[in-house]
């Protein structure tokens, strides 16, 4: 009797009626555009500037545009489930809430803490990357000043960093304050950074196309390999699997369900809108990059900056860095 009672408590499910699912203690103030940009901010971050170059150089070549289209389609199929759940159960909690309703409290408990851990580690990594990009923008002035003032805390290569990363701590505190001001305020800030980031991606794409050489896509090279499919169809399919990680973040839409106006309309529209926009951005940017220089000359670590530098457009490096900074701030705020 006692064991069955414990099992019943562990696997009990939360239930919502059609009316109670819409009840919320939070203010429903987010429209379609604001919810959509919340997910765009999660997806179009610094990862794009690194992921595209790595996949092009090692897996796909110019056929990365097909890989991104395939990955976008796979993400869309997954998004159908999130859109359905988000419309049916418009509550905060996303996967935690859906698991609680569908499977039970024990599994929801594990998933809830896993999601929290994911966001903690992810935000820490993004904050460190943001600090590094900002430091490179000012020619290492921040790290040099910190080392001169505080000194080295641990030798290079140890578990801990060489010096305390004050800037990453400050940016996490700043974004925490923005989020604490309320969903409307954080949505306004997030939208502003998304627009800035999309502006930078548009600049990279359009400016890159001025250096376009379509012969890099056509015919075969001196070794008889297709220029568009240098790694074959298998490489393109493998690249699609890697490119799927660029779409991770669309589930952020579901967390906004409890603060969205008319969530049964807002969540599905925002889901499909953000995936369409992000897929277009990825295809356009990666296509522009592969038309600028041969795929095997692309630097996986700094693909866009080095490509423009190879064309003599070194000023573009700073614009790309600003885009990466804006993208990472999007990740932190959203």
Task: Tell me what you see in this structure.
The protein is 67% helix and 0% strand. The longest helix has 33 residues, at 105-137. The protein has a domain at 32-92 and 182-333: Amino acid/polyamine transporter I (Up-down Bundle), CATH 1.20.1740.10. With 334 residues, the protein is mostly helical.
Distance between the termini: 46 Å
Unreliable stretches: none
What percent of the residues sit in helical stretches (DSSP H or I)? 55-70%
Mean pLDDT: 82
Structural class from helices and strands?
A: mainly alpha
**Main beta-sheet strand count, sense and barrel state:** none
**Would you report the number of β strands?**
0
Q: Looking at this structure, what is the CATH superfamily of the domain at 32-92 and 182-333?
A: Amino acid/polyamine transporter I
Query: What portion of the residues fall into strands of 2 or more residues?
Result: under 5%
- Classified by CATH, the class of the domain at 32-92 and 182-333 is Mainly Alpha
Q: Report Rg.
A: 22 Å
Could you list some keywords that capture this structure?
67% helix; transmembrane; 334 residues; mainly alpha; amino acid transmembrane transporter activity; membrane; Amino acid/polyamine transporter I
Layout of secondary structure:
Blueprint: H1 2-10, H2 32-43, H3 46-60, H4 64-88, H5 95-102, H6 105-137, H7 141-149, H8 166-180, H9 183-209, H10 232-243, H11 252-255, H12 263-292, H13 303-310, H14 316-333
Organism: Trichostrongylus colubriformis
Membrane topology: Multi-pass membrane protein
GO molecular function, one term: amino acid transmembrane transporter activity
